[in-house]
């Protein structure tokens, strides 16, 4: 039997690691069956799934999303939050037609469509951020 064929058979017979096993082995600088692959933190947003369902994604594919695309499930290492503490007060600055200008919980001034033009998409434009330079950041 040629070496390439032998290697493929051994790969097929090898037990596939769980995402947790793979993550722990990578952190320990040990060999893994494949590199951990994670495209997103927790999978697509609900609105994105809704649009994809209209476009033909089956309920089964959505239910088994990580397996369907070959992505490892998200493995967290505890609760983390990288936003401002305390949150900024959300406030609407202006609404005209289908446009809303407002400040979100992160203090970001945004312009969003009130009624989204396409199902599954969030149309937004960031106008101004609360931190604009080192002097403000140091405070």
Topology:
Elements: H1 3-13, H2 19-27, H3 46-54, H4 59-63, H5 65-69, E1 91-96, E2 99-103, E3 109-113, E4 124-128, H6 134-138
General description of the model:
The structure is a single chain. With 139 residues, the protein is an alpha+beta fold. The chain has two domains: 3-69, no CATH class; 91-138, no CATH class. Helix content is 32%, strand content 15%. The chain contains six helices and four strands. It has helices at residues 3-13, 19-27, 46-54, 59-63, 65-69, 134-138, and strands at residues 91-96, 99-103, 109-113, 124-128. The chain has a four-stranded antiparallel β-sheet with strand order 1-2-3-4, with no helix packed on it. Strand 1 (91-96) and strand 2 form a beta hairpin. The longest helix has 11 residues, at 3-13. The chain is flat. The model has no long low-confidence stretch (mean pLDDT 79).
Instruction: Please outline the major beta sheet.
Output: 4 strands, antiparallel
Distance between the termini: 68 Å
Mean pLDDT: 79
- The run of helices and strands is HHHHHEEEEH
Structural class assignment? alpha+beta
Regions with little confidence, pLDDT below 50 for 5+ residues: none
Number of structurally distinct domains: 2
Number of helical stretches of at least 4 residues? 6
Q: Give Rg in angstroms.
A: 22 Å
List keywords for this structure.
single chain; 139 residues; alpha+beta; 2 domains; 4-stranded antiparallel beta sheet; 6 helices; 32% helix; 15% strand
């Amino acid at each position: 039997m040629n070496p390439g064929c032998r290697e493929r058979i051994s790969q097929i017979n090898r037990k596939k690691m769980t995402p947790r096993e793979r993550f722990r082995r990578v952190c320990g600088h040990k060999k893994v069956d494949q590199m951990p692959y994670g495209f997103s933190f927790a999978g697509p947003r609900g609105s994105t799934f809704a649009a994809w369902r209209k476009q033909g994604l089956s309920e089964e594919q959505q239910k088994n999303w990580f397996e369907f695309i070959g992505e490892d499930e998200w493995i967290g290492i505890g609760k983390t939050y990288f936003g401002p503490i305390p949150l900024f007060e959300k406030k609407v600055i202006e609404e005209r037609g289908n446009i809303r200008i407002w400040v979100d919980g992160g203090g970001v001034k945004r312009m969003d469509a009130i009624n989204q033009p396409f199902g599954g998409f969030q149309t937004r434009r960031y106008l101004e951020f609360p931190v604009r330079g080192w002097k403000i950041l140091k405070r």
